[in-house]
Amino acid sequence: MEINLVSDTVTKPSFEMLECMFNAQVGDDVYKQDPTVKELEATVAQIFGMESGLFFPSGTMANQTAIKLHTQPGEQIIADKSSHVYLYEGGGASFNSGVSFSLIDGERGLITADQVAQSINDPEFYHSALTSLVCVENTTNKGGGACYELEELQKIKAVCDAHQLKFHLDGARIWNALMAKKQNPKMFGQLFDTISVCLSKGLGAPIGSVLLADKASIARAVRIRKILGGGMRQVGYLAAAGLFALENNISKLPEDHRRAREIAQALRKTHWVDTIAPVETNIVIFTVKPQYNEKLIIEKLKSKNIAISAMGQGKLRVVTHLDYREVMHGYVLEAIGKLEL
Questions:
Q1: Contacts of 336 (CB under 8 A, 6+ apart)
Q2: 6-24 burial code (b ≥16 CB/10 A, e <16)
Q3: Which of 101, 128, 245, 316 is most buried when burial is the number of CB atoms within 10 A of its CB?
């Protein structure tokens, strides 16, 4: 049996989740007749204290819809240089919305209010793109699952308000951040114009994200989702998985975080690891010493039925998740400690 630590997207629905999906009440969601989708959208919106939500098949589509909502072609987005909306959405911002990026060199993917303020183009200087949107990612993927402090987000919000900029949160792993920082999700709802919330990573649902905003923005988002091909029919079967995940799996996230910290501790004791990024949530990013090859590490672990991933630039990544159980964890810690190179 392979122990897959490549990503927290590799989880599969539990029997209980599948049972919930099987028993879901469904309708045609394109006609807004699916009661389970409506319940999921309302539930997530209520958690964050926002007016309305819209179910999407992917976080990428939810983010791309938010960008389209807040920008016009030729305008500019401020984001970290390693952000998902810039690096991992297929150039969608330029393709779908005709916008460019002003990239910030943040700390582990986290940007500051001062950096945002310095990146805003003078709106009177028509030779440069008009800055219209700030995007932040929480937790940060390439930053090793780093989480924003609420105070810094509040400062960024103040900068956005002062310059009439919209503020979007790519909440791909927002549940991990909320548990790690013990933050109130309603505080996030007060700060952002839009939030994309993923259900298929730490929470173990097979698919789905929800975009949150005010009612008027969600009404516009329905049209954008249609243009992008995201209208779905009896999708309540999938929404039911999201509802089950919200009710049953959020409380399990601290176990993922503990196991990630313990993996980092085990790596720190080896002779072949060079650097390890701080571990706040469920992602461990590390590099190996120059005399070793990261591909060799991947192959050695693979020979022990442990799968991890390469991130480029010599970085390796381990991600703990719902399907990574304690018995697997003990085996992985032992395997790391005994790895021969």
A1: 263, 266, 267, 270
A2: ebbbbbebbeebbebbeeb
A3: 245
Cα 321 to Cα 5, 6, 120: the distances in Å are 8, 10, 38
Mean pLDDT of the region 280-307: 95
Phi-psi group of 184: left, alpha or beta (phi > 0 → left; psi -120 to 50 → alpha; rest → beta): beta
Q: In the chain, what percentage of residues exceed pLDDT 90?
A: 98
Q: Would you say the C-alpha torsion 123, 129, 135, 140 has a positive or negative sign?
A: negative
- Other beta carbons within 10 angstroms of residue 287's beta carbon come to 18
pLDDT band at 243 (very low <50, low <70, confident <90, very high): very high
Pair of tokens at residue 311: 């991130």
Task: Please spell the DSSP secondary structure of 45-107, one letter per residue.
Answer: HHHHT-SEEEEES-HHHHHHHHHHHH--TT-EEEEETT-HHHHSSTTHHHHHH--EEEEE--B
**What pLDDT is stored for residue 288 in this prediction?**
95
Assess whether pLDDT exceeds 90 at residue 313: no
Q: How far apart are CA 112 and CA 275, in angstroms?
A: 24
What does the pLDDT read at residue 337?
95
* 273-276 sheet: strands from edge to edge: 273-276, 283-288, 315-319, 309-312
Please state, in angstroms and rounded to a whole number, the distance separating the CA atoms of residues 309 and 331: 18
Q: Is the pLDDT of residue 95 over 90?
A: yes
How large is the C-alpha radius of gyration of the chain?
Answer: 20
| Rounded Cα gap, residues 307 and 299, in angstroms | 9
Nearest in space to 84 (alpha carbons), one of 129, 143, 132:
143
- Residue 84, pLDDT above cutoff 90: yes
Q: Shortest CA distance to 206 belongs to which of 58, 64, 90?
A: 58
How far does CA 277 lie from the centroid of its chain? 18
